[in-house]
């Protein structure tokens, strides 16, 4: 007997995408009609009807036809046919589905009323595109860079990854000027130009110790809070704590974004600090630990 997942796997990529959209609309909106498929994928009415019939054939318990309103509604025994990643779902609900054609004439719209903090630091596309090409092609990139300490300088970097800190985007790269791996804020880059050469062995990401090192961090509800069980629920904690594993190169940014009190004596008492880093020594050797709220370098540690 062919199971639902096996049946789905035999379909074309385009068919799976349309069925996943039907699954999504039923799961999060409780209904879907032919116009939804026609608008999203540009299929003909007959094609939309076939997709709905196919979904109904594969997962009959998930979908019921409401003839009076000519829409399909979620079945009482609904069980998602596809796995819907929470981050993608939330992004789609807040910003709509992207199809590469959005622009001033066709802006993306949220699927439900949703408000998100405004993004204040947005990279220019004529900078982001060549940076992405350099990462993909594994090529050095000549840039002009505006630094808080050095002002405007010309540099050659070897980029290998983009990083979203939650407040801004930067690129992780080897900096030939400094001879070390560093973070470069995308909005501070100008005139990027790919160089037709391969990076040296020591410029490759496997030589970036901060990037390859994985740090284990344990978060607990902040000791000042009277109802720690609520924080445990907020973060899905097991046994009163939450363990995460993160690259050392991004640990400081993450702790700053999540407002984690990293002081050894949980001294930060402002309202935004709901989590405490149970073992601040876990940040030993993490170069950007100075970004972590309340962090204190262990006595005897060398300062960079």
TrEMBL record:
Query: Can you give the residue ranges of the DNA-binding transcriptional repressor CapW winged helix-turn-helix domain?
Result: 15-83
In terms of Pfam families, this protein maps to: BrxR_CTD, WHD_BrxR, WYL
Point out the signal peptide segment: none
Q: Which PROSITE patterns match?
A: WYL (PS52050)
Q: Which InterPro entries does the UniProt record give?
A: CapW-like (IPR016634), CapW_CTD (IPR059020), CBASS_pafABC_assoc_protein (IPR051534), WHD_CapW (IPR059019), WYL_dom (IPR026881)
Keywords, A to Z, come to: DNA-binding
Official protein name in the record: Putative DNA-binding transcriptional regulator YafY
Organism encoding this protein: Tepidicella xavieri
Source lineage: Bacteria, Pseudomonadati, Pseudomonadota, Betaproteobacteria, Burkholderiales
């Amino acid at each position: 007997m062919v199971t639902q997942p096996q049946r789905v796997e035999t379909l074309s990529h385009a068919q799976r995408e349309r069925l996943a959209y039907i699954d999504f609309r039923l799961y999060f909106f409780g209904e879907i009609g032919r116009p939804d498929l026609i608008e999203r994928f540009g299929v003909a009415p007959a094609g939309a009807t076939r997709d709905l019939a196919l979904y109904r054939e594969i997962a009959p318990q998930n979908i019921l036809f409401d003839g009076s309103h000519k829409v399909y509604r979620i079945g009482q025994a609904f069980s998602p046919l596809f796995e819907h990643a929470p981050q993608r779902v939330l992004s789609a609900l807040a910003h709509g589905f992207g199809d590469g054609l959005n622009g001033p004439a066709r802006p993306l719209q949220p699927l439900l009323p949703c408000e998100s903090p405004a993004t204040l630091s947005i990279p220019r596309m004529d900078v982001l595109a060549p940076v992405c090409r350099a990462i993909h092609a594994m090529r050095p990139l000549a840039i002009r860079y505006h630094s808080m300490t050095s002002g405007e300088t010309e540099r050659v970097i070897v980029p290998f990854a983009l990083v979203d800190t939650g407040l801004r985007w930067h690129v992780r790269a080897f900096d030939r000027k400094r001879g070390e791996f560093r973070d470069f804020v995308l909005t501070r880059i100008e005139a990027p130009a790919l160089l037709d050469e391969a990076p040296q062995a020591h410029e490759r990401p496997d030589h970036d110790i901060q990037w390859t090192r994985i740090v284990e961090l344990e978060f607990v509800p902040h000791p000042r809070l009277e109802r720690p069980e609520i924080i445990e629920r907020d973060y899905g904690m097991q046994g009163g704590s939450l363990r995460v594993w993160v690259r050392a190169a991004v640990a400081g940014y993450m702790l700053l974004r999540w407002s984690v009190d990293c002081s050894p004596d949980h001294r930060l008492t402002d309202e935004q600090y709901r989590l405490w880093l149970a073992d601040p020594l876990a940040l030993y050797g993490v170069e950007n630990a100075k970004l972590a709220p309340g962090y204190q370098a262990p006595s005897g540690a060398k300062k960079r």
